[in-house]
Amino acid sequence: MIELDDRLSALRARARAWSEDLRAIALDLDRDPATIERVLDLPAIEHIGLFQYPPRFQPGPLVLGGHRFHGDSAVEHVVFFEELARGDVGAMMAAPGAPMAGPLVALLGDEAQQESFFGRLRARPTWTFLALTEPATGSDPAAMETRLRPDGDRFLLTGAKRYVGNATRAGPGVVFARTGPGPLGLCAVLVEGGDPGFTATPLPTLGLRGAVLSAISLDSVELGPERLLGRHLSPARRGTWSWVRIFNRLRPAVAAMGLGIARAAHEYIGDHRRALSAAERTRFDELARRIDAVRQLTLHAAVAVDANPADGHLASAAKVRSAALAEEVTRAALDFFGAGARFDHPLLDKLARDARGVEFMEGAGNVQKLGVYHHLARGRTHHG
After folding, report:
1. How would you classify the pairing of strands 172-178 and 129-131?
2. 176 Cβ neighbours under 8 A, 6+ residues apart
3. Please, which residues have CB within 8 angstroms of residue 62's CB and are 6 or more apart in sequence?
4. Which of 189, 197, 258, 363 has its C-alpha lying 20 to 30 A from 315's C-alpha?
């Protein structure tokens, strides 16, 4: 069992208090994603961004009870994001900042690229995006069709991406593309939402509406060499190597979001169904045990990734279990309120819709299971 120490307990308590602000805007944001632009001064929204920048680009750490937090560990992210997702995962995903692009720029960007990217985010609320998934091939890098090809002293980026959060309102973003076959042919480039040839179109979604998931069209977007991330690194360290490490690091936080949704639904039952039958109490308590078990798995995954960013098998397992848990608990919560629950309890309806979206965040369950399998297969090979 992993127990939170005083430091992490202080972070959890502050995030839990801030989560109430997100809960208050959840339904408004679900109806109108532009609501986020009117609440940028909420502490939760401001500090989501703080936890996405390298410490040297932060205006200062979050200080709680004498403890300093830079948001530079996966464990801190798990504790912080579970609580905020309990408030509203849609508001988390709608917040300006660099939840996915930022870690990649911090890992691959040279000094000038990092100064430009994070300097803009620090100067004013700015949305960013990361585009990997494609309409026909999903998030499989081996099948990626988006291409970056040289054109004189410039490059042309052509292709299409799908399910990209915040792309319609973003400034800078990162797009994955191919320069050639194999793992060394994968690259990441900096793209601006206003670049000629870049078009972002919102997609209709049932859940996670605050993030305005979008489709991106890239029609010969012209990029200078300064837009290529990892130019100062060897090809082996700027392609698949970076992609694997970044998503390993992000995955426990995604699992924490599923946990937060499950907790919100479970707490809703406790708050609005005070009298439970014996069978209902048994079911309610079992859901609580499952939430606790997945939290432990997620914390262990975060510890493993902090120790070794290449070790992502527990993070994959946590993501799978968390996505399933979020759907299980939200559906069970609706059952506790009977027929018409989606109409009579709009927050529960929203939680159930958002829960389904967790399955598709940062790789669907089958992709994560393959990651676990490959880890186990390598273990058997090494010990066989």
Report:
1. parallel
2. 131, 132, 141, 144, 146, 186, 187, 188, 243
3. 11, 14, 47, 50, 68, 69, 70, 71
4. 189
Amino acid code (one letter) for 34:
A
Tell me the C-alpha distance between 144 and 160, whole Å. 10
CA atoms within 13 A on the CB side of 61: 13
Residue the block writes with tokens 């489709």: 215
- Angstrom distance (rounded) from CA 254 to CA 360: 10
277 in helix, strand or coil? coil
Q: What is the largest CA-CA distance in the chain?
A: 74
CB 344 within 8 A of CB 351: no
Q: What gap in Å lies between CA 214 and CA 3, rounded to an integer?
A: 39
23: CB partners within 8 A, 6+ apart: 86, 87, 88, 264
Tell me, yes or no, if the pTM score tops 0.90.
Answer: yes
Tokens for 264? Answer: 């919100």
Question: What does DSSP say about strands 67-69 and 129-131: parallel, antiparallel, or unpaired?
Answer: unpaired
Q: Is 311 strand, coil or helix?
A: coil
- Among candidate residues 192, 42, 156, 176, the one with its CA nearest the CA of residue 100: 176
The overall average pLDDT reported for the chain is: 91
Extract the tokens encoding 173. 């973003």
At 341-378, the pLDDT tens digits run: 999 999 999 999 999 999 888 777 777 777 786 777 77
Q: Are strands 154-164 and 147-151 parallel, antiparallel or unpaired?
A: antiparallel
Residue recorded with tokens 């995903």:
93
Secondary structure (3-state) at 220: strand
- Token digits of residue 67: 């403890």
The dihedral built from the CA positions of residue 265, 297, 366 and 91, taken in this order, carries a sign that is positive
